[in-house]
């Protein structure tokens, strides 16, 4: 397979580890090793201390799969398959799709959610959000219009990266019914689940709602453990998981033994980790509200209701790419311009992340840049 460059990841590869201030991170503040191990219960601490660094079970550590299954209403351990989140997207697309299948995906999107399908010979239609008084919203009627006889898969991502959009329970059930009526699979990227802001309903996971629903999640975003490279698929369709296991024999074969134990520690400390991230997000959103009120002539800002990223619009003749380039060069602050999401997105937006502790200093530098240049 030949596949197009991953624009967002190439952008981060160039700047992420050399820039002074990251204002566009999608994950929450990473946990330190000592902090995570200090949360361990007796069982996981013993597992950690006695760990041997051999091969692991290809489907994932059984205790970890059991812990993951407990996150859902209708899943058992056998309904869970563990690998790196990006690897799982690649595996799922390659096992489920055939050349000339049709795929519909929420857009803008993490590029692999549609690029792998395109590279396997599928056609892809993009379900784009509307922008109104309440911010970004995906209209289910527009999704219905995109479906056709060849539609094999609907790909959704809620809470949505980069807009923060989140449908309500009725809307997600309407998506499921559209798929069920036509026998279409749903692949649901739920990496930001548990980061719903106060007053926002948490929608059900697609794997719990639909027999052809496949939920993707992992430790990277809500659980502050991106470096573990641990994610999972959850679905009642065990045939799909069996095909995924066969494909994984040609990728990583099995997971990192230390990462699986550390992920188990993280999941058993879920409430502590997530509540800390939500507290951090709430404080940072207050900072952003204040910042965007001061600069309301330059930005279009509606506070999102879930997740750790937002996608404010830029009210400047200078495009988002030029704005981000100038900010980086002069102040050492990284924002993500909307162009990295592809040319079909016509708006001038920047992705801003608000799950990190150093947001105040980054915003101060952004404020100085604006005052000096605009």
Write the SSE topology.
Blueprint: H1 7-15, E1 21-22, H2 33-38, H3 42-49, H4 62-69, E2 80-83, H5 85-96, E3 102-106, H6 112-119, E4 123-127, E5 130-132, E6 135-137, H7 140-146, E7 151-157, H8 169-182, E8 185-189, H9 206-209, E9 213-218, E10 231-234, H10 238-248, H11 257-268, H12 270-294, E11 299-300, E12 309-310, E13 313-314, H13 320-331, E14 333-334, E15 336-337, E16 350-353, H14 359-373
Parallel strand pairs: 1-14, 3-4, 3-7, 7-8, 8-9
Antiparallel strand pairs: 2-10, 5-6, 9-10, 11-13, 12-16, 15-16
Helix pairs in contact: 3-11, 4-11, 5-6, 5-10, 12-14
Defining key terms:
single chain, 374 residues, alpha/beta, Aspartate Aminotransferase, domain 1, Aspartate Aminotransferase, domain 2, seven-stranded mixed beta sheet, 14 helices, globular
Q: Any overview of this molecule?
A:
By secondary structure, the chain is of the alpha/beta class. The chain has two domains: 7-32 and 271-373, Aspartate Aminotransferase, domain 1 (Alpha-Beta Complex); 34-269, Aspartate Aminotransferase, domain 2 (3-Layer(aba) Sandwich). Helices cover 40% and strands 16% of the residues. The protein is built from 14 helices and 16 strands. It has helices at residues 7-15, 33-38, 42-49, 62-69, 85-96, 112-119, 140-146, 169-182, 206-209, 238-248, 257-268, 270-294, 320-331, 359-373; strands at residues 21-22, 80-83, 102-106, 123-127, 130-132, 135-137, 151-157, 185-189, 213-218, 231-234, 299-300, 309-310, 313-314, 333-334, 336-337, 350-353. The strands form five sheets. It has a seven-stranded mixed β-sheet, sandwiched between helices. Strands 12-16-15 form a three-stranded antiparallel β-sheet, with helices on one face. A two-stranded parallel ribbon has the order 1-14. Strand 8 (185-189), helix 9 (206-209) and strand 9 (213-218) form a beta-alpha-beta unit. Helix 3 (42-49) runs antiparallel to helix 11 (257-268). The longest helix has 25 residues, at 270-294. The radius of gyration is 20 Å and the shape is globular. The model has no long low-confidence stretch (mean pLDDT 97).
């Amino acid at each position: 397979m030949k596949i197009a460059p991953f624009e967002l990841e190439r952008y981060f590869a160039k700047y992420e580890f050399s820039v002074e201030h990251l204002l566009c991170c999608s994950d929450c503040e990473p946990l330190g090793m000592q902090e995570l191990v200090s949360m361990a219960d007796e069982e996981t601490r013993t597992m950690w201390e006695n760990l041997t660094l051999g091969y692991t079970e290809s489907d994932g550590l059984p205790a970890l799969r059991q812990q993951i299954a407990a996150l859902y209403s209708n899943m058992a351990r056998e309904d869970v398959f563990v690998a790196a989140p990006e690897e799982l997207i690649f595996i799922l697309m390659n096992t489920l799709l055939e050349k000339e299948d049709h795929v519909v995906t929420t857009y803008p999107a993490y590029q692999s959610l549609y690029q792998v399908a395109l590279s396997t010979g599928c056609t892809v239609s993009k379900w784009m959000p509307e922008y109104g008084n309440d911010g970004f919203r995906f209209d289910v009627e527009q999704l219905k219009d995109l479906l056709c006889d060849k539609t094999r898969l609907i790909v959704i991502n809620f809470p949505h990266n980069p807009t923060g959009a989140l449908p309500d329970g009725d809307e997600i059930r309407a998506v499921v019914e559209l798929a069920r009526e036509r026998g279409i699979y749903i692949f649901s990227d739920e990496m930001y689940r548990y980061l719903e802001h106060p007053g926002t309903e948490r929608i059900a996971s697609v794997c719990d709602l639909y027999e052809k629903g496949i939920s993707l999640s992992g430790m990277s975003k809500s659980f502050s453990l991106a470096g573990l490279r641990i994610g999972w698929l959850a679905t009642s369709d065990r045939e799909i998981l069996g095909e995924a296991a066969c494909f994984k024999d040609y990728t990583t074969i099995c997971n990192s033994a230390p990462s699986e134990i550390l992920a188990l520690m993280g999941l058993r400390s879920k409430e502590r980790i997530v509540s800390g991230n939500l507290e951090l997000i709430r404080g940072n959103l207050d900072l952003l509200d204040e910042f965007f009120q001061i600069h309301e002539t330059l930005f279009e800002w509606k506070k999102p209701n879930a997740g750790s990223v937002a996608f404010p619009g830029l009210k400047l003749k200078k495009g988002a790419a030029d704005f981000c380039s100038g900010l980086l060069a002069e102040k050492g602050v990284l924002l993500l311009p909307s162009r990295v999401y592809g040319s079909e997105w016509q708006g001038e937006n920047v992705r801003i992340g608000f799950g990190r502790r150093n947001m105040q200093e980054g915003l101060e530098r952004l404020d100085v840049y604006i005052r000096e240049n605009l």
